[in-house]
Specification:
Helices cover 41% and strands 13% of the residues. The chain is an alpha/beta fold. The chain has one domain: Rossmann fold, CATH 3.40.50.720. A six-stranded parallel beta sheet has the order 1-6-5-2-3-4, sandwiched between helices. Helix 1 runs parallel beside helix 2 and helix 4 packs parallel to helix 5. The longest helix has 29 residues. It is globular. 41% of the residues are buried. Bound molecules: NADP nicotinamide-adenine-dinucleotide phosphate (NAP). The site of NADP nicotinamide-adenine-dinucleotide phosphate has 25 residues, from helix 1.
C-alpha cells in the first residue's frame, strides 16, 4: 500500500526487495536509501542492528530503538562513523506510549519517516504445556503489539512520506516448531494481521468496499523456503 506500505520481511530475504510487480499494491517509486529517514526497532543487536548499520552506511538517517541504551549509543557511533546521522531512542516497544515517543522523536529530529522497520522480538523456549501465562503474554506484547503500536504511530507519517512499513516476520509464522510455540504464534498473528490491513487498505485506496479486485493488493507471502527461524 503506497501511503504506508506494509512489507512482510523474512530474514535472509531482505536483500531481495524488488520493484513492484503484478499483484503488488506498492506502485509508488521509493526514495533512494540515501534520501530516507529509517526507524529500526530492536536495533541494539542482531538483524536490527545490522539493518541500521547498513542503512546508515548507505547514507540513510537512522533512528535506532530498543531498551539497551548503551548498545544503541554504540550503534549510533557506528552510523555516524560511516558519515551519516543517527538518533538513539530507548523505548519498550510493547508500551504504546513509548512506541509513539519513538516516532515523535524521529520526526522532531529528522522531519519525517520514510521507512519503519518493525523488528524487535523476545522469545521463551519451552514446551507448550510448560509456558507460563505471563511468558506467553510478554511474547505477544513485544512481538505482536510491539509491531502494531509502531504501525499505528508511524502510519500518519508514512502516509505523508508515501513511506514503507516493514514487518519483520519469519518462516515460523507458517508452522510451529518444538520449544518455540509462543514465538511462532506471535509471528503467525503478525502475518494474519498485516495481510488483513493490506487487503483493507487496497479497498480503501480504490475508494470502494472490499471486493475481489482489492484482493489483488495483497502482498504475496511466500511459503517458507529455508529452515531458519
Ligand atoms: N535470528 C534468526 O534466525 C531469525 C529468523 C527468522 C526471523 N527472525 C526475525 O528477525 C528479527 C530479529 O531477530 P534477531 O535474531 O536479530 O533478534 P535479537 O538479536 O534477539 O534482537 C532482538 C532485538 O529486540 C529488542 N527488544 C527485545 N524486547 C524489546 C522490547 N520490549 N522493546 C524494544 N526492543 C526490544 C532487543 O533489544 P533490547 O533487549 O535492548 O531491548 C534486540 O535489539 C525478529 O523479528 C525475528 O523474529 C530472526
Amino acid at each position: 500500500m503506497c501511503h504506508g506500505c506494509v512489507r512482510p520481511v523474512m530474514p535472509g530475504r531482505v536483500a531481495r526487495f524488488h520493484a513492484a510487480g503484478d499483484g503488488d499494491s506498492c506502485r509508488v517509486k521509493k526514495k533512494r536509501l540515501s534520501d530516507q529517514v529509517i526507524v529500526v526497532t530492536g536495533a541494539s543487536s542482531g538483524l536490527g542492528r545490522a539493518v541500521a548499520r547498513l542503512a546508515g552506511a548507505r547514507g540513510a538517517k537512522v533512528v535506532v530503538t530498543a531498551r539497551s541504551g548503551e548498545a544503541l549509543d554504540a550503534c549510533v557511533r557506528e552510523i555516524e562513523g560511516a558519515g551519516s546521522e543517527a538518533l538513539a531512542v530507548v523505548a519498550d516497544c510493547s508500551v504504546q506510549d513509548e512506541a509513539q515517543q519513538v516516532v515523535e522523536q524521529a520526526v522532531d529530529r529528522f522531519g519525517r519517516i520514510d521507512t519503519y522497520v518493525a523488528n524487535a522480538i523476545v522469545t521463551v523456549y519451552a514446551e507448550t504445556y510448560r509456558y507460563q501465562a505471563d511468558e506467553l503474554r510478554r511474547i505477544m506484547d513485544v512481538n505482536f503489539f510491539g509491531q502494531v503500536y509502531g504501525y499505528w504511530a508511524a502510519l500518519p507519517h508514512l502516509r505523508e512520506s508515501k513511506g514503507t512499513f516493514l514487518s519483520v516476520q519469519s518462516a515460523l509464522a507458517y508452522r510451529g516448531i518444538p520449544l518455540q510455540g509462543g514465538y511462532c504464534a506471535s509471528k503467525a498473528a503478525l502475518r494474519a494481521f498485516f495481510s488483513a490491513i493490506d487487503v483493507g487498505i487496497g479497498a480503501f485506496t480504490q475508494g470502494k468496499p472490499l471486493d475481489p479486485e482489492a484482493l489483488r493488493n495483497v502482498i504475496p507471502l511466500a511459503p517458507p523456503r529455508s529452515r531458519r527461524s
